[in-house]
Amino acid sequence: EDTGAEAPVFSGLTTAAPEDREVLLDRYLREQLAQILRLDVTELAGEFHLLEMGLDSLMVMELVSRCRKDLRIAIKTHEFFATDANLWAEFLLRLFEQERAREAAAQGEV
C-alpha cells in the first residue's frame, strides 16, 4: 500500500543532522508504540519494559511493518526481536543509514 507519500519520519531523518537522527527515531518509535498499545506517549518516557505494558508478538510485527514502510528499510524480524527494545532506535538508525548509503552508491553519488 505504498501511496508514494514520504512518511514525516523519513523526510525528518534525511534532513536532520546525523547527531539528531537517533532522537528523532526514538520519538517515532515511542509514538508508534503508544498507538499500538493504546497508551499516552508520556507513559513510554525513559526506559520501558514492553512486556509489562502488554506488548505481544503481533504488536511487535505491526511495529516492524510500520518501520519498514515509513523508514523504507529491510528489517529482519528475528534481529528486531533479538534487540533490546531500549536499543531499537539505534538498531533502526543503523539500518536506515546503511540503506541510504546503498541507494546513494547505486545512484553514483558516493
Explain how this protein is built.
Helix content is 59%, strand content 0%. The protein has helices at residues 8-15, 21-37, 57-71, 77-82, 88-106.
Number of helices: 5
The 3D shape can be described as: globular
Cα Rg: 14 Å
Taken in chain order, the helices and strands follow as: HHHHH
**Total strand segments:** 0
In terms of structural class, how would the helical and strand content be classed? Answer: mainly alpha
- The low-confidence parts are none
**Terminal Cα separation, in Å?**
31 Å
Largest sheet: none
Give the oligomeric state.
Answer: single chain
Name the beta content range: under 5%
Overall mean confidence score, pLDDT: 89
- Helical residues, percent: 55-70%
Summarize this, please?
The protein is an all-alpha fold and 110 residues long.
Chain-wise SSE layout:
Elements: H1 8-15, H2 21-37, H3 57-71, H4 77-82, H5 88-106
Main features:
5 helices; globular; mainly alpha; 110 residues
